[in-house]
Amino acid sequence: MPSPRPTERVLARRREIGDQIRAARLHANLTQEAVALRAGMTLAQYNRIEQGHSSPLLDTLIRIADAIGVPLADLVREEPRPAP
């Protein structure tokens, strides 16, 4: 049975996480290629995660956090939303 398509909320959150990964990578003054190499993945795989086009496994996110040198929480922390 195929998995259900992600909701708009999930897609938006995936893009936010990609943005947080990019910000952490840039803060660490690393290239996408350097992070991909350190994390044991291809540049294309890493790029798709950072762009929010791919949904990485938890193990992959841990490897990316380790490659950048930040806690995993820094990559996936959700900012509080204002009350409606």
Question: In a few lines, what is going on in this structure?
Answer:
It contains five helices and no strands.
Structure description:
There is one protein chain. This protein is mostly helical. 62% of the residues lie in helices and 0% in strands. It has five helices and no strands. α2 (32-39) packs across α4 (58-68). The longest helix is centred in the N-terminal third of the chain and has 20 residues, at 8-27. The radius of gyration is 13 Å and the shape is globular. The N and C termini lie far apart (37 Å). The mean pLDDT is 92. It comes from Streptomyces scopuliridis. This is Helix-turn-helix domain-containing protein.
Main attributes of the structure:
84 residues, mainly alpha
Could you spell the SSE succession in H and E letters? HHHHH
Helical content (DSSP H or I, runs of 4+): 55-70%
Tell me the Rg in angstroms: 13 Å
The overall pLDDT average reads 92
Which spans have pLDDT < 50 for at least 5 consecutive residues?
Answer: none
Largest sheet: none
Structure annotation, total helices: 5
Described by the principal axes of the CA atoms, the overall outline is: globular
User: Would you count the extended β strands for me?
Assistant: 0
Percent range for β-strand residues: under 5%
Distance between the termini: 37 Å
Helix/sheet category: mainly alpha
Organism: Streptomyces scopuliridis
Protein name: Helix-turn-helix domain-containing protein
Q: SSE layout and pairings?
A:
Blueprint (H helix, E strand, L loop, with lengths): L7 H20 L4 H8 L3 H8 L7 H11 L3 H5 L8
Helix pairs in contact: 2-3, 2-4
